[in-house]
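FORM 12-B: Structure-to-Sequence Request
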């Protein structure tokens, strides 16, 4: 080490040694470089500092790269439920999200088009579901962050390609899900799992059923698999069963919509409260305002299951479409 270095340099070097993050190391190294006088005797030192600087810059960039990627895969839930659409390359995941939502992910006739997830909102009657387009998964390769995304979603759509090897795709995806300890609701979970399973509502949708005779292939597929999960055939290209698809999502999300009104006024039919099926009046009240749970006296309901304006108590089980006037 050349002897003619100023004391500042040694202080910066101490900072460098004590620095815990690549960013702090970079800052200290930059300071050291700026202090070292430029002449022949310090050539080696400066080269060494620059080398170390670039090493820490690489590290720091990699780190932000990873966390940016992580953020792209952790999508906050919006709407009545978060629905992740998963499947093999080219199954039509992006096409489905493009058709049903306000987002337009890239669609192409070559595989592995989608690199990161894209959420979009799909309307169903007067509510919205968040559909998430995802990068393809196969047994050979799955982006590791997809595991968390799958485990976090409320509902999974396994999208299969009628023109691919549908059966193989199905079996592989089920294997992948099991390797993540993800099991379909009401399916059998092995008793020897070491950690708790992730139980999901799963809809299997076989895409590219463009022609009416494709129904026969779907029947064969369902027979061969003996599939227990809900399974439908769709065509994103022709729009076949796309409405049915959204109805199935609504069924699986197990929510109901209730509308509130004030005495003597018309109900607000535009913005329903979306609550879990089987919720009681008391649970609805708590959702509207936490004080309501205590204050709640009773309510009048206009709906399918009761007389118009019928008075109900806390334990009344709300029904989809109920209009409710809460008395506190
Ligand atoms: N015949 C037919 N083709 C379809 C249908 N839906 C999508 N495709 C086509 O299938 C190809 C792949 O569609 P994408 O939506 O990009 O598929 P993806 O599953 O997102 O593919 P990756 O991003 O690679 O995983 C495109 O050429 C689409 O036009 C359909 O219902 N019928
Ligand atoms: Mg795609």
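FORM 12-B RESPONSE
SEQUENCE OUT:
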């Amino acid at each position: 080490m050349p002897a003619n270095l100023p004391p500042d340099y040694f202080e910066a070097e101490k900072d460098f040694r004590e620095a815990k993050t690549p960013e702090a190391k970079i800052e200290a190294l930059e300071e050291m470089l700026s202090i070292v006088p430029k002449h022949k005797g310090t050539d080696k030192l400066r080269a060494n500092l620059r080398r170390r600087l670039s090493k820490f810059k690489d590290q720091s960039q990699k780190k932000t790269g990873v966390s940016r990627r992580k953020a792209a895969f952790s999508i906050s839930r919006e709407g009545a439920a978060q629905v992740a659409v998963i499947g093999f390359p080219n199954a039509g995941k992006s096409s489905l999200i493009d058709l049903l939502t306000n987002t337009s992910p890239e669609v192409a006739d070559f595989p592995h088009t989608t690199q990161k997830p894209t959420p979009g909102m799909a309307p169903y009657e007067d509510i919205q579901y968040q559909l998430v387009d995802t990068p393809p998964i196969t047994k050979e390769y799955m982006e590791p962050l997809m595991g968390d995304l799958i485990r976090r979603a409320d509902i999974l759509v396994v999208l299969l390609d009628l023109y691919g090897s549908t059966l193989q795709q199905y079996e592989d995806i089920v294997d992948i899900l099991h390797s993540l300890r993800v099991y379909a609701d009401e399916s059998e979970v092995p008793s020897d799992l070491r950690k708790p399973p992730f139980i999901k509502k799963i809809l299997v949708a076989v895409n590219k059923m463009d022609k009416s005779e494709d129904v026969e292939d779907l029947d064969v597929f369902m027979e061969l698999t003996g599939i227990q999960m809900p399974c439908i055939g769709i065509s994103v290209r022709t729009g076949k069963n796309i409405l049915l698809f959204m109805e199935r999502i609504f069924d699986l999300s197990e929510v109901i919509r209730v509308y509130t009104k004030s005495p003597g006024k018309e109900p607000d039919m535009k913005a329903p409260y979306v609550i879990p099926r089987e919720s009681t009046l008391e649970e609805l009240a708590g959702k509207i305002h936490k004080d309501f749970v205590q204050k709640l006296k009773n309510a009048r309901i206009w709906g399918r299951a009761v007389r118009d304006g019928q008075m109900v108590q806390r334990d009344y089980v709300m029904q989809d479409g109920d209009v409710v006037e809460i008395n506190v």
